[in-house]
Amino acid sequence: MFSMFKKARTQQALVAAVCLVAGAEVSAQSIALQNASFEDPDIPQANLGLIDFTQINSQLELQFAIGRLISRDFFGGSWVQTGPTSNFTNPPSQQTGVFSNQPIVINTPDFNVQIDPIQGVDGDGIGFDQLGFILADPLADGVLNDFVSIHQESAGVFEAQKDYSFTLAVGLSSVFPAGDDAPLRIAIGYLDDTPGLEGSEMFQELAGLDIIASQLGPGAGTSGPSPLSDFTVELDDLDIAPELLGKGIAVEIRVDVPSDIPVQDRFNIGGSFNYDNARLAVVPEPTSLALLAVGGLLGLRRRR
Fold it and tell me: Is 81:75 a contact under the CB 8 Å cutoff?
């Protein structure tokens, strides 16, 4: 009688464990990304005295001059830039980079500029916090291009029965906000090391998410800055081919303008996105956790 009661109690415990683990929220574990909050390279406080106002003829030219003081068109860490290079700027510029989230105030008889810091920016507590930027309508040598991107291979590798997520905080530029129809894509994938592939050809997407500027709050595409909002792309383990297990996990931030958009309509896209706080995470499948729990209880039962 006692053994039957004990067996029933064990079975009840097994069922309860499975239900508890399967129904519980599974916590994600972070996978490190280098320069995830875009603090490298460090940009010092802008020296507005370097602006030659005798050469500034418009508010737009002044904003470009300020931009050159508070931004850099390259990244530290393992971020790889791909896409066009604009040789009409001096020096030649990539279409994405980092900038300092510092306040700018200029009051002269001819110009009145105030740029307020964007709220909710992640940083390292040293100097001004920084963000990344990417042009919504890539332009190089006066020619419109179809894409620009950055990608990075993380320290993590794909494992069986694991889901993955990539989260990025996204907003609109305070000076040149992307137009309402502008697309930004974030993706999880891997790097193809086939000989002969370069740049963006190496990144192979497994899951992606399109973010349209009009999603980024009231006034998106018309005025800025917009607050940063988190967007997440998720990769299910069923979408990871067996031959990819053990391969490095990569992420990408990309502007990919559809080639069928007429040139005259691309002015509804122009401007740029801001982004910050890139986060990659792995989430074990609930069923695998349940099996682990059952295995543990069965082991406990055998010891009894």
Answer: yes
Return the DSSP state at 228.
P
Structure tokens at 223: 């005025």
pLDDT in tens, 104-144: 999 888 888 888 888 879 887 777 899 999 988 765 445 55
Query: Are both 214 and 301 inside the same structural domain?
Result: no
Range of the domain at 292: 1-26+286-304
Q: Which residue, chain included where needed, has tokens 């592939």?
A: 197
| Whether residue 20 is found in the same domain as residue 84 | no
Position 42 pLDDT exceeds 60: yes
Residue 210 predicted with pLDDT over 80: yes
Distance CA 12, CA 103 (A): 62
Q: What distance in Å separates the CA atoms of residue 274 and residue 178, rounded to the nearest whole number?
A: 9
- Interhelix angle 286-303/2-23, nearest 10 degrees: 160
Q: Which helix (H) or strand (E) holds 87?
A: none
Query: Whole-model pTM?
Result: 0.82
